Amino acid sequence: MKRMVALLTILTLVLSGCRSGSEDAAGERIMNYFEEHYGEGYSIGEVNYNYLKGCYDTNVKSAEFEADFAQAAENLPDNLRVDDSRFVIEAMLCGDEIYIEKRLKVEIVDHDDSVALEESRAVPREIRNIIIEPLNDKYDLDVWSIVYTDINGLFELSSDSYFSELLRSDLFDEIEFKDAGFERFTREFLDLNDDPVLRKDIIRVDDLDAFILLQQDPSINIESLEDIKWFSNLECVLIFDLPVSVDLSYFSDMEKLDYIIITNVASLTGDLSDLSGLRKLESLEISGEGITGNLGSLGEIDNLSSIIISNAPITGDLSDIGGLDSIGVLKLRNTEITGDISFLSRYKSLQDIDLSNTQVGGDICSLKDLHELTDLYLANTDVYGDSDCLDDLTDYDYSGSQIK
To answer: Of 323, 385, 386, which Cα lies nearest the Cα of 360?
Structure first.
């Protein structure tokens, strides 16, 4: 499948800047860790700095695992074929700590034209016994999943479930695109040329870290991203510097989304409630006058650690963020948010606060126990008090407020 390598390279250059020396050092530390704990036979890929997580990350390959997988797959029945497999060892260097996660995804296809539904449901468990269990015994997998497709539909069995679940029975329905430019883009992305684009082609696009549209072929005119909704298994959406129209409702059914960053597009509309069901969402950055709704729509997304919304007429009180105990970045510049900043004193992980040009008030000294706080912007607010109570800030702006 075409991976849009050029666009990914551009994104890496934009975000990583001049970190090549640091990335080389991080890669060396990760490689040394693997040699010390796992021995030889491992190789690491490109190391990148993940600004969203504040860590260096890379994928590590194991030649021994690939050989073991091929041997296990030989035990599958003749009617089953491995369509795709991905074993990813993600290594992340965060400060002085190295975190490892081992993930395996196996896609199996049965080409028999006569399979009973109950037989279909049983096949993923058979695949688990043949492939997953022996590999798990040796490699202690953190996450694994089996995606099995036959005439009855697409079935999944994973480390998070105890049964084989029928995900879709409409896999062979043809997608009807609303935007001709997006349809052409999708065809190129999936290497489909003039073939029909079916649901089964798109639903399998779930291993992407991002759906990136940084630049367009001049001959492709994408006016709206409404058709992005077909890519329902995306984990991260990064869309910026594009002359396209976007609505938040396009992402309301993408339950696997971790990150949404949408800035500097032709128009961004939608209500914050469109995102309220995205329970895995960790970071949100959006900007635009067409964004409406109440801050409380995000208050029950427990994983949210970063909220950046600007230049939008959203309403609500600071207290509406409710139980977001892991919030580290809260930037609501140029919105209609109200409330007393003392409410934020309970969020000990806060590092960056920007409430400039909002209707918030309260005593700045109520934040003195936020020891992780480095950046504080309260320009043109009703906040008051003596700024000397916060003496460890790296950057701040209190202009137009009552702060001394």
So the answer is: 385
Of 219-228, 322-331, 374-383, the one with minimum mean pLDDT is: 219-228
CA-to-CA dists, residue 54 to 50, 57, 399, angstroms: 6, 10, 30
Joined tokens for residue 251: 């992402």
Q: Is 74 left (phi over 0), alpha (psi -120 to 50) or beta?
A: alpha
Assigned token pair, 206: 């779930």
Token reading at 37:
């704990």
Residue keyed to tokens 């940084």: 214
Token pair for residue 28? 């060396």
CA quadruple 322, 347, 353, 260: dihedral positive or negative?
negative
Structure tokens at 42: 């491992």
Q: What percent helix, strand, coil does the chain show, rounded to 5?
A: 30, 35, 40
Question: Is residue 281 a contact partner of residue 287, using CB atoms and an 8 Å limit?
Answer: no
Q: Where are the alpha helices (DSSP H) in 84-232?
A: 117-127, 133-139, 180-190, 199-203
Closest C-alpha to 290, from 262, 316, 255:
262
- Phi/psi of residue 279, each to 5°? -70, -15
Q: Could you report the per-residue pLDDT of 349-389, keeping only the tens digit for each?
A: 999 999 999 999 999 999 999 999 999 999 999 999 999 99
Strand, coil or helix: 273? helix
At 274 the three-state DSSP class reads: helix
For residues 199 and 176, give the distance between their C-alpha atoms in angstroms, rounded to a whole number.
10
pTM: 0.66
At 6-56, the pLDDT tens digits run 333 333 333 333 344 588 888 889 888 888 888 888 888 888 887 666 788
